[in-house]
Amino acid sequence: MVTIETIRDAHERIRTHVHNTPVLTSSAINQMVDARVYFKCENLQKVGAFKSRGAVNAVLRLDDTTAARGVVTHSSGNHAQALAYAAGLRGIPCTIVMPHNAPAVKQAAVRDYGASIVLCEPTLASRLETMHDIVVKTGAHPVPPYNDERVLAGQGTLALEFLEQADDLDVIIAPVGGGGLLSGVATAARALRPHIEILGAEPQIAADAQLSLQTGILQPPADTMTIADGLRTGLGDITFAHLQRAGVGIMTASEDAIREATYCIMERLKVVVEPSAGVSLAVMLENPGRWSGRNVGIVLCGGNIDIRRLPI
Amino acid sequence: MVTIETIRDAHERIRTHVHNTPVLTSSAINQMVDARVYFKCENLQKVGAFKSRGAVNAVLRLDDTTAARGVVTHSSGNHAQALAYAAGLRGIPCTIVMPHNAPAVKQAAVRDYGASIVLCEPTLASRLETMHDIVVKTGAHPVPPYNDERVLAGQGTLALEFLEQADDLDVIIAPVGGGGLLSGVATAARALRPHIEILGAEPQIAADAQLSLQTGILQPPADTMTIADGLRTGLGDITFAHLQRAGVGIMTASEDAIREATYCIMERLKVVVEPSAGVSLAVMLENPGRWSGRNVGIVLCGGNIDIRRLPI
């Protein structure tokens, strides 16, 4: 299990390679929800998302022999760019398996960081098979996007910074998809502030993390097309176990509230966020009264939205 | 004339009421222009624009008797919100004269800061007449948007921060409309770094500042509808004199380049900017080769764009 010590180690390891991202506030948003809300801007992180923390930690922890054979993952999202960035830091090969229908702009972003792309069919089976072939042929080391203790510890580092930057938080809310972000943040925050409330925010139509924690049984991801596309994944066994141990609650938000919150953040804080980053504020907007007078920390997970193709 | 001492005084006066805004960088943008580019994010400033610096300085410099009668300006842009914010800090009345066709959202923003609005006809004559009536009736003190030494000194404070935050800048580029921002920044930067290059960035189709500096004669604003709507104003005599004294060059950018640069900043830096903030990067993009190996500081003036009505 990942502990606060593992997370502190990870922070020492990665801190010169990732940003200590700023915390922003808005008096207009504070008025809307009758609370003091602090936004940790991981959309301003390297590669535009918190994912670079976990990927850098995982890559820097490899021994030299393993590292020399390179790393591999399957992803067309932020983790792909994050791993490409991390491998570039260490100067080792990186291969990203992507479905052949992945947007050209996402392929280009990964290539810009110096990684190779291997295209596959747009099915999970084809992704896994393609990745397996690469591992067998090249000896490349797989770095999963969330269900991995090194990745989880890396994501947790943002909570160390956040609790130093923001005054006396009563609550932290972070979005939950695969759970790497939320379980890392929860592990760190629970250790440093035993009485803090830790909430995961999830789309109502993809509430598998909520059901997993309520039933105590890991649920498969909901098969829906929420606009919070980063949150369509389900928990892994490792992230699930950490969420259970840290005592995390889950609240859900409607698609309309997610859309409204995403715009609200862009309008009021003047930062670009993806809809997955809007879910935490959406939960606040849909539960008025619950936050009165409290200090609430929100993690803005990323800013990878196609700004030329708005509206969402 | 405003000097570096005036600007330092202004900084002491306003620093607890405005943000020391972050400086962001992007390796992708650095590659594009073959330079190290530092972006001073005044879009993350109070009211979403640098304007709060000048307005706060002007309001805090009033003696108590004058202040008690309140302040007034005519503006439907960022200066209106900035003055309303500043007056709120001091707890004095604030009246904003706005054309009756000003967008409801801009009227609401000003009211949210506690100011009163007086609507007028959408002509300069009506604005001035309406403002004059208010001054006569209430004794309110007018705070102009840029052609004012207190305002100019306030805007200059951002350069004090910028030169501490960014490594050894060779060039600073700021957009120029009325010239309050550029002349304040130029006055501070010239005093602190005698050999720094200071450039104003202006739309090609509204290049009145360039013509003013070339001819030595203050030119009226070009009557055009550049997408950089914050830059449609012309210089004032005070800002013009400061620009001449500081030795400022002006470069222009096409509308296409402004649009592209605005998107590029939102995509790469993940912050929301108005087109007026895109003009400086547009100038860089349209003049490749000129910046090779240099450290360039760009002022992102504001983020007041209607994100729900993209594309621009």
Task: Walk me through what this model shows.
- The structure is a homodimer of 312-residue chains.
- Chain A is built from 13 helices and ten strands.
- Chain A is of the alpha/beta class.
- Chain A folds into two domains: 208 residues, Rossmann fold; 91 residues, 3-Layer(aba) Sandwich (Rossmann fold).
- In chain A, the strands form two sheets. The first copy, chain A, has a six-stranded mixed sheet with strand order 1-2-10-7-8-9, with helices on both faces. Chain A has a four-stranded parallel sheet with strand order 5-4-3-6, sandwiched between helices.
Quick tags:
2 domains; alpha/beta; 6-stranded mixed sheet; homodimer; 312 residues; 4-stranded parallel sheet; Rossmann fold
Beta-strand portion of chain A reads: 15-25%
Cα(first) to Cα(last) distance of chain A is 38 Å
Report the strand count of chain A. Answer: 10
Biggest contact: A-B, 20 and 20 residues
How would a textbook summarize the main sheet of chain A?
A: 6 strands, mixed
**What's the overall average pLDDT of chain A, rounded?**
96
Q: Strand arrangement, largest sheet of chain A?
A: 1-2-10-7-8-9
List segments of chain A where confidence is low: pLDDT < 50 over at least 5 consecutive residues. Answer: none
In total, the number of domains of chain A comes to: 2
CATH class category name of the largest domain in chain A: Alpha Beta
In short:
The structure is a homodimer of 312-residue chains. By secondary structure, chain A is of the alpha/beta class. In chain A, 46% of the residues lie in helices and 15% in strands.
